[in-house]
Design a protein that fits this description.
180 residues; alpha/beta; Rossmann fold; five-stranded parallel β-sheet; 28% helix; globular; binds adenosine monophosphate
Length: 180
């Protein structure tokens, strides 16, 4: 017998499932823990399918380390696209291109293999959470440096109160659940 359909909209189901962890990884941050979504097989599948609606015309899905890999890789499989990991510095074995970006304290960077994206490929960038937008903006720049065309960005969660969306300008941005 098929399982009962889940109750509520995808937004409601996500809101009920995502766990707020106060003061992680440091005081004052309310961390959105998406791991309960992953163990709910039906919800995980529905999230990946919903992200696919943002991916029209993509040749490549980029996932941002590390939770962007969890959603980006199955999305790429569903779409029949290639998957490219954008990683923290020093993790990739071959020659890399790097984009650095500012954090509240100090800087961080994203790296990709120089040949990961072919010129002109249309790229969707995926991560779990959009916060201030610095990471996603760096990912857009890295796609462009590699010769790709950033088609848009997609997130499971958007923290609207951190104003990441304006930082990404007019690029299409899709999020499944926004905390205002
Ligand atoms: P940002 O560059 O500020 O948009 O931060 C985005 C990156 O940090 C993403 O890769 C998120 O996984 C992570 N992140 C930032 N804030 C949070 C949060 N409150 N809960 C969970 N992840 C977060």
């Amino acid at each position: 017998m098929p399982a009962d359909p889940p109750f509520g909209s995808l937004q409601e189901r996500l809101r009920a499932c995502i766990r707020d962890v106060p003061d992680f990884p440091r005081a004052g941050v309310a961390f959105k823990d998406i791991t309960p979504v992953l163990v709910d097989a039906r919800l995980f599948q529905d999230v990946v399918r919903a992200l696919a609606t943002a991916a029209d015309g993509a040749d490549v899905v980029v996932g941002i380390e590390s939770r962007g890999f969890i959603f980006g890789a199955p999305l790429a499989c569903l779409l029949g696209c290639g998957f490219v990991p954008f990683r923290k510095p020093g993790k990739l074995p071959y020659r890399t291109e790097r984009v650095s970006y500012g954090l509240e304290y100090g800087t961080d960077a994203l790296e990709a293999h120089v040949d990961a994206i072919r010129p002109g490929q249309r790229v969707l960038i995926v991560d779990d959470v959009l916060a201030t937008g610095g990471t996603a903006a760096a990912a857009v720049e890295l796609v462009q440096r590699l010769g790709g065309e950033a088609l848009g960005t997609a997130f499971v969660v958007e923290l609207g109160f951190l104003h990441g969306r304006p930082r990404l300008g007019s690029l299409p941005l899709h999020s499944l659940l926004t905390y205002e």
